[in-house]
Write a structure and sequence with these properties.
alpha/beta; Multidrug-efflux Transporter Regulator, Chain: A, Domain 2; Rossmann fold; two-stranded antiparallel sheet
Length: 323
């Protein structure tokens, strides 16, 4: 019997994906490869429909489409005739990418050059290419973060102007927020509130933390740059989260925030005793409890390492509470 073929409109109806998104997934990520009819129209198979349904479930669960397609291809390569896909793909199950020596340096240089030339179209093309080639966490850790550092260093040396640094920071901020938006939260996930510390307006560090926290299974509420201290305290009272994470890039701002942090500690003890607070950023150089506090933990390291340390401290707190 001849296999039934489907038009893109039929596929859209059966997968609940728009025709525009199906085309984008095909052209940018090679999610499926439909045949072409003599008139140029796409012709999809039932396997294509099942693949798109599976990919949609992964995206709905917070996996980036690039990572989901990579996992699909990996499983098909391992068993091309009968590739089986789990109903839900855990982010941690996607194989880590290990590239050749110097790969990241080349990518960083390419993107840094595009940003400093204010070539927005090229910068977006590069980021799209990186997200297709590598898992999102590698793009964040090995490309976007070093580009951010490079921009700062070039600005400090007067090699670029302030507007170029701002352009690049905004571009990276948009990218990280778009990656965070791909995650879908569930009510049963532990809640993490994130924000810049009072007076702090540098958002990228805490946005990186938010990405890795979502990847680790947290439901994240982001309060933005320089939230009012009262707003943070009210948030603790109302939401009673598992944890709150604040970032500081300035030692002066961190010092000025100490009275607020001690008040936050008292408020948590009274209103939400299970909640822990984590303070991070480039000014924090070791993991330790803030002097005079019960549950304010200073944690060092980049976004991914900081989230791992948070998880360890939260697990230790749970064990102690249940003992």
């Amino acid at each position: 019997m001849k296999e039934r073929i489907y038009t893109i409109k039929e596929v859209a109806a059966q997968t609940e994906l728009s025709t525009q998104l199906i085309r984008k997934w095909e052209e940018r990520y090679r999610a499926v490869s439909p045949k072409r009819l003599p008139n140029g129209y796409r012709a999809y198979s039932q396997d294509d429909i099942e693949t798109l349904r599976w990919l949609k479930r992964q995206v709905d669960d917070g996996v980036s489409i690039a990572m989901a397609v990579m996992e699909k291809e990996r499983r098909e390569a391992a068993s091309p005739r009968s590739a089986s896909f789990p109903e839900r793909l855990e982010l941690s199950s996607v194989s880590a990418f290990v590239g050749p020596s110097g790969l990241w340096d080349e990518s960083v240089s390419e993107l840094l050059a595009a940003i400093e030339q204010i070539d927005q179209e090229r910068a977006h093309r590069l980021i799209d290419r990186f997200l297709w080639q590598y898992p999102a966490e590698h793009v964040l850790t090995h490309i976007l973060q070093p580009v951010l550092v490079g921009l700062g260093e070039h600005w400090e040396r007067h090699q670029i102007s302030e507007y170029q640094e701002h352009f690049g920071s905004h571009l990276i901020r948009e990218t990280v927020q778009a990656l965070c938006a791909q995650f879908r939260s569930h009510a049963d996930q532990p809640l993490l509130v994130t924000a810049c510390g009072p007076g702090e307006r540098h958002e990228l560090g805490i946005l990186f933390v938010g990405f890795f926290a979502r990847q680790a299974g947290y439901r994240v509420v982001y309060l933005g740059a320089s939230p009012a201290p009262k707003g943070i305290l009210d948030c603790i009272d109302d939401l009673q989260p598992e944890a709150i994470a604040l970032s500081f890039s300035s030692e002066q701002l961190l010092k000025q925030a100490e009275p607020f942090l001690l008040e936050l500690d008292r408020r948590m003890a009274a209103a939400s005793p299970h909640t822990l607070a984590f303070i991070g950023g480039p000014v924090v150089r070791q993991t330790a409890t803030l002097p005079g506090s019960r549950a304010i933990h200073m944690i060092d390291g980049d976004g991914k390492r900081a989230v791992r340390r948070m998880q360890t401290l939260l697990e230790t707190e749970r064990i102690s509470r249940d003992a």
